[in-house]
Design goal:
By secondary structure, the chain is of the alpha/beta class. Helices cover about 30% and strands about 30% of the residues. It binds adenosine-5'-triphosphate. The site of adenosine-5'-triphosphate (ATP) has 13 residues, from strand 2 and helix 1.
């Protein structure tokens, strides 16, 4: 799937600007950003619920907006499954079979049994965790090539969460689907995602491959008795300061930057393991506005 220079304004407000990336089969792409950054709007654009003001989303070179049959290959799981509430499992299965011609009924019931959901239940009798699991089962049973998940584990207990994450990992490997996950759970994305797209105020500020993440950034703890010396101010991003202890995220020419820090003779120097959360705070933690 190619997302080409997509911008979207809603009620004259610019919500997304120049979004450009592609999504690969068999890979999980994590979408991160602060509240209001535009994640849900982007997912809604990728599934064709809304259309871009400028730009296009293409599958095999064809626009999903002018070739509606393409939408059989894309399924969106919103963060709440309220819309399905009034139906029974059988009714939803029928509905999905009408929309998605490759819907795999055998797989659907196999997964319903595996996760011990009642075959004859109605969705309104399900707990939040059961609804979340059911939405995922439904999505993967469509055999759509692109599965878009908005906060799939939001509000779930640890056990259900683990089952859901495990299920996503297995399903991506088994069916070679492309999954896009919007999430605030950076620890979960670290476990799941192959790459991360970071949105800020509707724009992509960073794209990371989780494989190279740890080679591109360093998290450094240093102690300077009189504050960070002038000659190295501006190197890296200050993540945290506790008294004389500074934690910095360094990027770019790592060796050269680290050599400069060491040349400033800190009383103590240590490299710490970097997490996605560190990068999130370093890159997006700058202001307190939530829009
Ligand atoms: N239908 C709409 N009408 C007006 N504004 C909207 C609409 N949809 C989205 N927006 C605005 O677009 C911006 C992005 O919203 P969106 O829901 O995509 O963000 P998000 O990154 O998913 O946020 P969160 O993490 O809080 O779910 C917000 O400022 C929101 O107010």
């Amino acid at each position: 799937m190619q997302i080409e220079q997509v911008s979207k304004a809603i009620h004259r407000k610019q919500v997304l600007t120049n979004i450009d990336f592609s999504i690969e089969p068999g890979k999980v792409t994590g979408l991160v950003g602060r509240n209001g950054a535009g994640k849900t709007t982007l997912l809604r654009l990728l599934v064709g619920i809304i259309q871009p003001t400028i730009g296009d989303v293409k599958l095999s070179g064809k626009s999903i907006y002018t070739h509606p049959e393409m939408k059989q290959d894309i399924v969106f799981v919103p963060d709440s499954s309220e819309a399905l509430k009034g139906y029974s499992i059988k009714e939803i299965e029928q509905l999905y079979r009408d929309i998605y011609p490759r819907f795999d009924r055998a797989l659907f019931y196999q997964l319903i049994d595996r996760f011990q959901l009642p075959r004859n239940g109605r969705i309104h009798s399900f707990s939040k965790g059961m609804k979340a699991l059911f939405s995922l089962i439904l999505a993967f049973s469509t055999k759509a090539k692109y599965i878009l998940l908005d906060e799939p584990t939001d509000g779930l207990d640890v056990i259900v969460k683990k089952r859901i994450l495990q299920f996503i990992v297995e399903a991506v490997a088994d069916y070679q689907v492309a999954v896009v996950i919007s999430s605030h759970r950076l620890d979960e994305l670290e476990f799941l995602a192959d790459s991360i797209i970071m949105l800020k105020d509707g724009e992509i500020t960073q794209e990371y491959s989780l494989e190279t993440l740890k080679d591109s950034y360093k998290k450094i703890q240093v102690v300077f008795p009189h504050g960070i010396p002038e000659e190295i101010q501006g190197i890296g991003t200050l993540l945290q300061q506790t008294g004389k202890v500074f934690i910095l995220i360094v990027e770019g020419e790592l060796e050269a930057e680290i050599a400069k820090i060491r040349a400033a003779r800190p009383l103590y120097y240590e490299e710490l393991p970097i997490t996605l959360e560190d990068l999130f705070v370093a890159k997006l933690g700058g202001d307190d506005f939530v829009g």
